[in-house]
């Protein structure tokens, strides 16, 4: 670790987050922890079935934003991490850390959103815990959810399975969640109708796998760090070069406009209801048709392809026909001066 | 998106590229065009423009990223202020990661200092109103694009009779440094892609003395890809035909005389001064300082602190890069000791810095 203290950028999902994991957390927890860089761990040999297990914490500010709140985010996020490993989500635990002084009406709104999200995703919240910390020691509400899922198949879907020729599918517009949260933050007088895309993707994944099975090589949800960071992670994990097409990227006009005002690149902005599916070339069009026919796939597109085996470069062909490289997000994206 | 997608049309872009190709087909050497503004630098990388231009045209980046040209001593002073218990530092986002001699605002924030990213200087004034027990110091950096808003914040603070709002001022002006660069014998700039939004304030006519005195073509150019290509085409045409004029590609925003109201606001609050540019040195008359009348809001005059001796980082070529003399790839620290997550020089920090652009988008 190059710094002596934890910086905000260590939570960005980009390179600093990777450094924190690779240089401190994983080495210190070695023997008892392993890092395979996938969204959920696969547990083998439990009564001869395979299970997926994952955990995630939610600290979003503000806790209620257009299109959702921290409650549905906490359920959808963990459901999606299980789904991205190819598992069917079964059960979720909820840990609540509440700050003294949080209004009960806000807590109720968060819990109701959790209930609705769990119903929609058809998962059960089976265990939980609640702690309260003194005012000033937390930020309204922090939520940790862990989830267990079961595999109904034998296919191995993971970040290292992308192959040259594969197509990269995305189920809809990018940057909606990050910009919805940013626009509703105090201090930014940006009026917009941008809403978060927070949504469970397990039903979409279930249908995709039922139809295309082993031809689905990688599933990953581009949350923190955005599509750029996630595609770069997959390229490095699979040791392949990936080329994205700028003109194919679905972006809502309001998100593009807000990003442009603030000097942010939507490719690096967080999503909470999006997935990247890397699919064998000959099944890509059919998979796109299936995605597009589902409510979770409105605006789905093929945004690029795996071009060759290599050391993990990601390039983007711009609308003008130029080429630019795509790197992981370094630290947090900062709004520019002018 | 209205007024953006129209200027990103790939077909029109390709037609402009063909036109540029034709323009320089018989040009014997290489022409060096400098984009002065950081947003141009970013746009060139983001749209992959360099890879599309004919070999006769070389684009180099100039000193137009406000974060990058701010001297290290300014960061050190901000860091010193941040360590005071009764101070809240308010700043545009880019500044917090810039390394000073021994610390940065980001590190001070993690150590407990109060540092707030604001999107407008008026938010900093509101912060001062909300926290009468604190001194709110806004870091005033940037060119004419930001200066009027900061002048406005000082006027607002005066109207509200606030005694806890201050600006630490390092404002710079255009086009004075362009004249300094043009007369540098080591640099051969054949034409300037003049800033877009700075020019909206100062006006296209501001570049006339530069074009006339130094015989260097100037084209005020917008930030969208079609603007950029059209600006390059207009510059190339001037270079090929030996003209040195001020032309305005960005007429939908930039007027010959600029924005009089904004100019008057700057004039009311600030007066010209000599300014230190990181990597370039002191350029006479290229900066702005707060007028005596508004001295009560000048952090440097009102809150005097002892600041460490500025120490530039060894081996960092930011200065040469800002002058367009070398490219990021020529710097031994680039991608090794200096990365966006651990920047050594300011050019790697700002989203508009040349090194950050090369790191993020360079092929």
Describe this protein's structure.
The complex is a heterodimer of chains A (338) and B (363). Chain A has 338 residues and is an alpha+beta fold. Chain A has helices spanning 15-28, 70-84, 104-121, 176-183, 202-212, 226-238, 253-262, 281-292; strands at 41-46, 49-58, 64-65, 68-69, 88-99, 124-133, 141-150, 167-170, 216-220, 240-245, 276-279, 301-309, 314-317, 323-325. Chain A has a seven-stranded mixed sheet with strand order 9-11-8-12-10-13-14. Chain A has a five-stranded mixed sheet with strand order 1-2-7-5-6, with helices on one face. In chain A, helix 5 (202-212) crosses helix 8 (281-292). Chain A is globular and about 55 Å long. Chain B is an alpha/beta fold and 363 residues long. Chain B has two domains: 1-304, 3-Layer(aba) Sandwich (Rossmann fold); 318-358, no CATH class. Chain B is built from 15 helices and eleven strands. Chain B has helices spanning 10-24, 38-46, 66-69, 72-82, 105-110, 121-130, 147-159, 176-182, 197-202, 208-214, 225-241, 260-269, 299-302, 318-322, 354-361; strands at residues 31-37, 57-64, 87-91, 114-117, 135-140, 165-169, 191-194, 218-220, 246-248, 270-277, 281-290. Chain B has a five-stranded parallel sheet with strand order 2-1-7-8-9. In chain B, strands 4-3-5-6 form a four-stranded parallel sheet, with helices on both faces. Chain B is globular and about 65 Å long. The relative contact order of chain B is 0.17. Chains A and B meet through helix 1, helix 7, strand 13 and strand 14 of A and helix 1, helix 2, helix 5 and helix 15 of B.
Helix and strand element order of chain A: HEEEEHEHEEEHHEHEHEHEEE
Q: What does the average pLDDT of chain A come to?
A: 90
Share of residues in helices of chain B:
25-40%
Shape by Cα distribution of chain B: globular
> How is the main sheet of chain A built?
7 strands, mixed
Mean pLDDT of chain B: 92
Strand order of the largest sheet of chain A: 9-11-8-12-10-13-14
Q: What is the string of helix and strand elements of chain B? A: HEHEHHEHEHEHEHEHHEHEHEEHHH
Work out the radius of gyration of chain B: 21 Å
- Which percent range fits the helix content of chain A? 25-40%
The total count of helices of chain A amounts to 8
CATH architecture verdict of the largest domain in chain A: Alpha-Beta Complex
